[in-house]
Amino acid sequence: MSSLSTPATGGPEPLLLLLDPAARLTDGESVRIAKDVLCGGADVKVVYPESPSELDRVLSHRGRRRPVVIGSDLALQRVLQALYRQRELGADPVGMVPVGRSEELAAARALGVPGEPVRAARAVLSGAARKLDLLVDDGGGVALGGVRITGAGTRRTGGRTGGWRSLWAKLAAAEQANALTADGRPSAEHNPRVRVEADGRLLADVHRPVRLVQVTLPGVAADGAGVLEVVVRAPGALVRARAESVSVVGRGFGYEADGHPVGPVRARTWTVHPGAWGLLLPAA
Known about the structure:
Blueprint: E1 3-5, E2 15-19, H1 21-41, E3 44-47, H2 52-60, E4 66-71, H3 73-85, E5 95-98, H4 106-111, H5 117-126, E6 128-137, E7 142-143, E8 146-150, H6 164-177, E9 194-198, E10 201-204, E11 212-216, E12 228-234, E13 237-243, E14 245-257, E15 260-281
Parallel strand pairs: 2-3, 2-4, 4-5
Antiparallel strand pairs: 1-3, 6-7, 6-15, 8-11, 8-14, 9-10, 9-14, 11-12, 12-13, 14-15
């Protein structure tokens, strides 16, 4: 891991800038511009974590520095997950400068993060922290917007494999190793048979395959809603519900958290944590 610092300016809070290496490959110019704006306005330490353990270490030793991500939704998700596991999620607001392909920044757009690097960096320096809900699962994972189990199985994303993309691969591989079916092999059915409960209310059972189970935070940028929206779609049936927690159990199913693949697993419970984290957004 490499790092560099700029001297203190006496202005905004000091920052820990977590740079997604994949962002430099996608749009190095936007990364440079964002760094220049941030380093010109605050005491900034720039780090390039090369493993999950390094990410944990730099976050746990950040002191008063506010975490700021330059990169994709996945990079932000990884940082929030590490902070959640360290019980530091609500200690400081998090900043983000979104850099990546359009499909990798859907959550950032929904959250209200400016898409232009100068505006996003200025929001980090002089914006206001907004409290947001978070979707947390019983395996320690988090999602900014929602999760999906589809009849097509878990989608695998292509493209680059370096940087934080490799962190995702390592974490997903660990989850898969601990989530095997009874015969010792993972299963991902095209029409999974799962039991779905929302706050204890049965929405689907294993005798009938489902095409879609979707759990979302409604109005992803709405403060403190504290509720999940659940949709279960099966052949000839559609069930909707609102709940604080959702449990899914099956032989082995994969799912997507904010569009990124996880699993397969045998069981997952997702719970909404109202106002669990703060995001620096334009003050207006």
